[in-house]
Design goal:
CATH topology of the largest domain: Phosphatase 2c, domain 1
Keywords: ATP-binding, Hydrolase, Kinase, Magnesium, Manganese, Metal-binding, Nucleotide-binding, Phosphoprotein, Protein phosphatase, Transferase
Structural class: alpha+beta
CATH architecture of the largest domain: 4-Layer Sandwich
Number of strands: 28
Shape: elongated
Largest sheet: 6 strands, antiparallel
Catalytic activity: O-phospho-L-seryl-[protein] + H2O = L-seryl-[protein] + phosphate
Number of helices: 19
Helix content: 25-40%
Protein name: protein-serine/threonine phosphatase
Strand content: 25-35%
EC number: 3.1.3.16
CATH class of the largest domain: Alpha Beta
Pfam families: GAF_2, HATPase_c_2, SpoIIE
Length: 681
């Protein structure tokens, strides 16, 4: 008896789908497809009209997968009438071949009993599609290799979830594990394998064809030399799928299962789709990782090397690129040893977050270093730097400007000569963690004008103080403004009292970029995060000294030509006394300070050196305010008339505080007054 007759006697039809799109049927196949039994050939469209729409899509996917893998395709589908009503269920088996994208198939069709249990095919399809959509979204959002591997490890596939996974990469004709989860719990048993190794992963890497191993016996039989690597893991089924990008195998994905898995066509289709998405995601992640590594190397080459040792000063610096884009930008810092024995400390920010901003930053940093080494004062360095940047902008379609803060320091005395070009003022953390801002005379950002003027402000780094120079990213990242950002940094200073500058620098960066920073967003959450550069300096003092004494000190120089800075001094004194009680004493101290400074700059013709110190335990502290000047004349009590415009300074001191005095200081004098916390007299 002919085989076709045997199959017909068993109720099984035979059919052939030619590359031209015509389908040849025998009588049994025609009957099962609800066509006249004398029909021997129909078009593909006619046959397709007899299949349920969802089932036809599923069958097409299975056929394509079978052709790719060189296996038989099998599926259960529904036969419908012209109204879409289901007439019967049939099992279709086929051997698929093809060329130039066209399919040809030889197969059988056999009626089966409608499944009484299990999920209907349409529901399975919807479940599978939902899973693939979610997996695709998660993989598309992964921007690094580690993130892709975490997503792959969390995949829960409908109906069969891997107990372990591994991803292999190919490099120089060798296979190595780039990530695994739930597999090789005792460690990967090899560093790398030559592609010639008799292992399923190496075979997939060589051939580009998937390997499915449904049982340990099949693994042992087909890949005996490497069975010892898989046996201890306790798995019963493995799938090895190629990761293909642009026709090239870039790796292998291996999901493993503890329960026996037959890898049905539907399951192979899901695994194959995941493998394709995983290959795309890994390819993007490789490119992104490489881009970030190149950007980091570029940024490192443009930043200064190790900070030099400066006798008398401790220094620490950090640079943190923005987490978005190319991760390069225009923020920089520098520490320059000058021929005079002084040290220049520089921090700045070039406009932009691109390669050009990084290039301009590098050129500007080198130019400032050269001008500083030539011996120019702080204002001269910034003036020349602005001229240099203006020349760089000439001929460019988009001009760039830069902010900069330049400190010319004398480490032995702690004296600082500061010039500022549109940058943030330096901040000072006192010995107990209180943070103040030292107002510094400033000018336009570099590059706005070719020959701008910059003033120089004199400061002093007192023992126990920590100075902070930073770019705006440290203050404003996370949607903060200057006020809320400063409060965040002040808390970080208080949390690191008595610690070395390296730990303080880490704490400041963590306060702005660490996990806890996202719990306290600022009022401007729509702002884009910026690069961060910061530099800390501290006058060397015995370890722990600042923490034991907990003394707050303030020292500011007010030149005669900058009397507007008296308001800045008042503001800083109020900052020092933020927790002083009662509040009336704060007003009295600020008024006394204002009177002393105004008298010094008005009557002596020189600068006033303002000092303030708060010492003692909370509730019993003493504030001592001192103003030094170069005048020789001593203050004395006067009796001004009602219309007199001066002469009330001593009377005012007597009213505000009963404790004040005068001391000789070099060529001049110092007038001081004291306030005791809680003293209402």
């Amino acid at each position: 008896m002919h085989p076709v007759e045997v199959l017909s006697a068993l109720g099984t039809g035979v059919w052939r789908w030619s590359i031209g799109g015509r389908i040849t049927l025998d009588a049994a196949a025609a009957r099962l497809l609800e066509m006249p039994e004398d029909v021997t050939e129909v078009s593909a469209a006619a046959a397709r009209s007899r299949l349920h729409g969802l089932d036809y899509v599923q069958l097409s996917g299975i056929a394509n997968l079978a052709m790719t893998e060189g296996t038989l395709a099998e599926a259960v589908v529904r036969i419908v009438d012209s109204d879409g009503a289901v007439l019967r269920w049939v099992r279709v088996r086929m051997s698929v071949s093809g060329e130039d994208g066209a399919l040809a198939a030889d197969g059988t069709v056999q009626e089966v009993v409608r499944p009484a249990t299990g999920t209907p095919p349409s529901d399975r399809s919807l479940s599978r599609e939902a899973f693939l959509l979610d997996a695709g979204r998660s993989l598309a959002e992964a921007t690094s290799t580690d993130a892709v591997l975490r997503v792959a490890a969390a995949l829960a596939m409908p109906g069969f979830t891997p107990a372990g996974q591994a991803v292999f990469g190919i490099e120089n004709d060798r296979l190595r594990v780039i990530g695994h989860h739930g597999y090789w719990t005792g460690g990967v048993p090899f560093d790398e394998l030559p592609l010639s190794t008799d292992s399923p992963a190496c075979e997939v890497a060589r051939t580009g064809e998937p390997v499915y191993l449904s049982s340990p016996d099949e693994f042992r039989r087909r890949f005996a030399p490497t069975w010892h690597m898989a046996e201890p893991q306790g798995m019963t089924s493995w799938a090895y799928l190629p990761l293909v990008k642009n026709g090239e195998v870039i790796g292998v994905w291996m999901p493993a299962f503890r329960t026996p898995t037959s890898f049905s066509p539907e399951e192979r289709g899901v695994l194959g789709t995941i493998a394709r998405m995983l290959a795309q995601a890994l390819s993007r992640a490789y490119a992104h990782d490489l881009e970030r590594a190149l950007a980091a190397d570029l940024q490192r080459t443009m930043m200064p090397g190790e900070i030099p040792d400066v006798p008398g000063l401790s220094l620490a610096a950090r640079y943190v690129p923005t987490s978005k884009g190319l991760r390069i930008g225009g923020d920089w810092y520098d520490v320059i040893a000058l021929p005079t024995g002084r040290v220049a400390i520089v921090i700045g920010d070039v406009q932009g977050h691109d390669v050009r901003a990084s290039r301009v930053m590098s050129q500007l940093r080198i130019a400032i270093r050269a001008y500083a080494s030539e011996g120019h004062e702080a204002d001269g360095v910034l003036r020349r730097a602005s001229r240099f940047l203006s020349r760089l902008n000439a001929g460019e379609t988009e001009e760039r400007f830069a902010t900069c803060l330049y400190l010319d320091t004398e480490p032995a005395t702690g004296t600082v000569y500061a010039a500022r070009a549109g940058h943030l003022d330096p901040a000072v953390a006192l010995a107990d963690g209180t943070m103040l801002v030292h107002p510094t005379a400033g000018g336009l950002p570099l590059g706005i004008l070719p020959d701008p003027d910059y003033e120089v402000t004199e400061h002093v780094v007192a023992p126990g103080e920590t100075w902070l120079l930073c770019t705006d990213g440290l203050v404003e990242n996370g949607g903060h403004d200057l006020y809320s950002g400063q409060a965040r940094l002040q808390q970080a200073f208080r949390d690191t009292l008595g610690q070395n500058l390296e730990k303080v620098a880490d704490a400041l960066v963590d306060a702005v970029t660490g996990p806890e920073s996202y719990r306290t967003p600022g009022p401007h959450t729509d702002r884009r995060d910026d690069d961060i550069a910061l530099l800390l300096l501290r006058s060397d003092t015995p370890p722990g000294h600042a923490r034991r004494t907990a003394v707050r000190r303030l020292r500011v120089i007010v030149p005669r030509t900058e009397q507007h800075r008296i308001a800045d001094v008042r503001h800083q004194l109020r900052g020092m006394l933020y927790d002083w009680e009662p509040a009336d004493q704060i007003d009295a101290a600020v008024l006394a300070l204002s009177e002393l400074v105004a008298n010094a700059v008005t009557h002596t013709g020189g600068a006033a050196v303002v000092g303030a110190e708060v010492a003692g335990p909370p509730g019993r502290r003493t504030l001592r305010v001192t103003v030094e000047d170069s005048g020789q004349g001593l203050p004395h009590r006067r009796h001004p008339g009602e219309l007199a415009s001066s002469g009330r300074g001593v009377l005012l001191l007597d009213l505000l505080t009963g404790t004040w005095g005068v001391e000789p200081r070099g060529q001049g004098k110092a007038i001081w007054c004291e306030f005791r916390e809680g003293d209402d007299d």
